[in-house]
Amino acid sequence: FTFPVKDYYVKAGFDFNKEDFSKPADAFINEYNKQVANAALHKNADFILKNFKNKNFKQIIISAMKQDALLSSVKSKGIAQYFEKISGINNHYAAGKLENAILILDEMNLNPNGCCLIGDTIHDHEVAESVGCNCILISGGHQSHKRLDQTGRKVLRNIDQLLNLF
What we know:
Layout (H helix, E strand, L loop, with lengths): L4 H7 L10 H14 L9 H10 L5 E7 H10 L8 E5 L7 H11 L8 E4 L2 H10 L2 E5 L6 H5 L4 E3 L5 H4 L1
Parallel strand pairs: 1-2, 3-4, 4-5
Helix pairs in contact: 5-6
């Protein structure tokens, strides 16, 4: 799996000179939207988020999920109260995460050197590198531990290991 998502489809053999990208993207997102409510949080996610909030960490979500779906999902999982900002994208083609990160750093007057992006994709590493912040990756999501490890970032096997780092 890759971001931007369009690159994933190209690697899978789609030829967007013959077929419009919106067709497979729309088919995927329709199925995704049917299933997203069934996705569970990582074990202990609520405890870890609460722990970070008690330490006065500013917690922000920057996601490649469409903004309205992201807000709905975060609220339905009961974790919205832990975040100062929840930022998704304005389309369902999973493009714009880097731009959102840049805007949020500026809007919230955050020094990237004091920030840590916690994610589960190589793209999260790329976003962190582009904005100049630290990054920790968690395997078990979209990409394997082995692929994440190739970024040179610290890669954890589960989110519980975050408590030992902070």
